[in-house]
Amino acid sequence: MNKKDYMQNRELSWLNFNDRVLDEAHDSTVPVGDRLRFISIFSNNLDEFLMTRLGNLFDQLIMGDEHLDKKTGMTAQEQIDAVYSKLLVLYEKRHLIYESINHDLAQFGVQHLSIKDLDASEMDYVKGYFKEYIQPILSPSVVSKHFPFPHLYNNRLAIILKLKKDDQTTHGIVSIPASCPKIIFLNKEKTRFILTEYVLLKYANKLFKKFTVFKKSIIRVTRNADVNLDEEINDEDDDYLDHIKGLLKQRGRLAPVRLEHSSKLDASTIKFLKKQLKLPEKYFIKTELPLSFDFVSSLLNAIPADIKEQITYNPIVPQPSPSIDTKEPIIPQIKQKDLLLSYPYESIAPFLTLLKEASLDPKVASIKITIYRMAHKTRIVDYLCRAAENGKDVFVIMELRARFDENNNINWSEKLIDAGCTVVYGLEYFKVHSKVCLISSIEDCGKVSYISQIGTGNYNETTAKVYTDLSLITANTEIGRDIDAFFKNIPTENLNGDYKHIVVSPFAIKDKLNEFIDREILKQENSGNGRIIIKVNSITDSGIIKSLVKASRAGVQIDLIIRGISCLLPELEGYSSNIRITSIIGRFLEHSRIYVFGTGDDMQVYISSADCMPRNLEKRVEVAAPIYDNDLKHRIYDSLQIMLADNVKARFMNCDGEYEKKVGGEPLDAQMYFVEQAYKNASQTSS
Fold first, then answer.
1. Which of 207, 257, 397, 467 gets the most CB atoms within 10 Å of its CB?
2. What pLDDT, in 10s, does the model give residues 185-201?
3. Helix (H) or strand (E) holding 469
4. Are strands 256-261 and 284-286 parallel, antiparallel or unpaired?
5. Which of 412, 340, 346 is nearest to 373 (CA)?
6. What's the CA gap between 194 and 2, in Å, rounded?
């Protein structure tokens, strides 16, 4: 089989996914305030993509790397060119959608204004606001021999001006400080507003009084932020925490990969910026929209509550699990039956209660946990600290290299250490991305008992309200022993540990998945009932893709629920004709990873923190855990069937890698179905 026949480029697949996010901003059934949120999500996604994935391709060009994309044979330059070609289409699409959103917002009295829209009193107000609140914190600079071109921070707005004095032309730069407010409200109701950069652009001339200003534009530089946090520490005595802090500072200083500008730049300014930024003009993008959509959350938080209620989704509160009696201690209940929490439909509260009880329970000897991302405010750290202060052995594997969350993890690790917890910082060459927790108790008989938690998502109370994830809590002794071994193996760098039930990457998950796929091929050959369902964020691993294509050619029926990237093209005759790919983008972010092989009593179900990507299967420490409880197995299987039947928010991928809407049948929004079920279950339990 030629991989090029059934695979597509990862970067272009990601752009198609983000295009799907933009479609949500265009969906008239979505409240207009949330459509605005989707514009912001799309834009932030794009920034991160350019900083990391495109940054990596730029690195290949700089290094003269002749590496070809193994899936399509494209060079780095061909991939960059294809990305920018798609970007121009996405920019235009975003522009049209944003104009529509602003029109609809205006129907509710929320008006995004430009300078020309302001009346005389508002002009006086913004002029005074600029003079009193903005001008004092600015540091304008004329670029000359004595004043070199200032550093433009990553994704930070700035104003560039073309200046003239005594027949000499030059350029001025005004960087907008991060502390500068993003919005200026023009009425007490906070419904009429203007972005601060528009006001600064209007009055930037006042900062260069000895010059004539010819042209000016808002600009924003996006830089390669793919910092290698795995670089070796120069001195073995260097502090690892300080090492990571130092590397993070590089993010704002690395090479540019995009320059956005709000108005047309003349030839001399383009030449000037090309030279200063060492960035070709073809990576300059003009847009009449805001260069950053970071203002969206501030706007939606500020507008009157009665308007916000009309333009945003009705609040959805995660419900109590019907499997737990909240009036009784949770630890004895877990010992009786496995618990599966489904976020955000069900609350994370039972897990928090479990930690709280464990921190106080005299039988509990230790709590061990891996942490990748956490909320900025979290009770989890409080309970871990309380446990340590109560004499429990609290052991935390804190991954400092969780991209863009490094500083938050550094802060939490320092608090945990101060409370007496033992904190280690993962492994030198492998990120610890697994989500596992182990509570060990010494029973009256002297035996050790375990309660294990394995999740598909982070220990984050905030994202547990908006990400779909699964969390298994079990008192299964064998799984507990495996996880206890895991927590002994990782600090001793024994990555290829021996486990009887859980499966751990970087050495075992990929092999286990291939083993299960081969088993379904054999079943298909023997009885014609091979079946595979996989739900992940992305699938890019060539080996897994090849195995799935092999299974498809053998007749195995395969459904993949993939929110993001898929390098596998489905429904290609002779290759993937038995593979269907569904993507769901809705109110919640689909984040759970579920692997199902077979049907009925023979069905094997695993949940995991691992996507089908080389970084997860070969370069990270991930855990996949089996679901042994038959009720929970079928609950997971049934939920996947609901997702596959979604014809409201789901799209299916065609053989060209494009997404198409499902048509026909009664409307079914899987996420809203699960919300309704959670409310119904909670109501029946309380009654």
1. 257
2. 999 999 999 999 999 99
3. strand 467-474
4. parallel
5. 412
6. 54
Task: Please state the pTM of the whole predicted model.
Answer: 0.91
The residue count of the chain comes to 687
Active-site residues: which are they?
A: 433
Q: For residue 663, count CB atoms less than 10 angstroms from its CB and return exposed for 0-12, middle for 13-18, buried for 19 or more.
A: exposed
Q: Flag residues of the chain having pLDDT under 70.
A: 1-3, 65, 226-253, 402-404, 687
Q: How far apart (Å, rounded) are the C-alpha atoms in residues 640 and 603?
A: 14
Closest CA to 316 of 583, 646, 33, 671: 671
Q: Which pLDDT score is estimated for 438?
A: 98
Question: Using an 8 Å Cβ cutoff, are 584 and 646 in contact?
Answer: yes
Q: In this structure, are strands 212-223 and 256-261 parallel, antiparallel, or unpaired?
A: antiparallel
Q: How many angstroms separate the CA atoms of 385 and 364, rounded? A: 14
Here the contacts of 26-34 (C-beta below 8 Å, separation 24 or greater) are: 26/97, 26/100, 31/310, 31/311, 31/312, 31/313, 32/101, 32/104, 32/105, 32/108, 32/311, 33/105, 33/300, 33/308, 33/311, 33/312, 34/311, 34/312, 34/313, 34/587
Tell me how crowded residue 630 is: count the other CB atoms within 10 A of its CB. 11
323 Rama class: left (phi>0) / alpha (psi -120 to 50) / beta: alpha
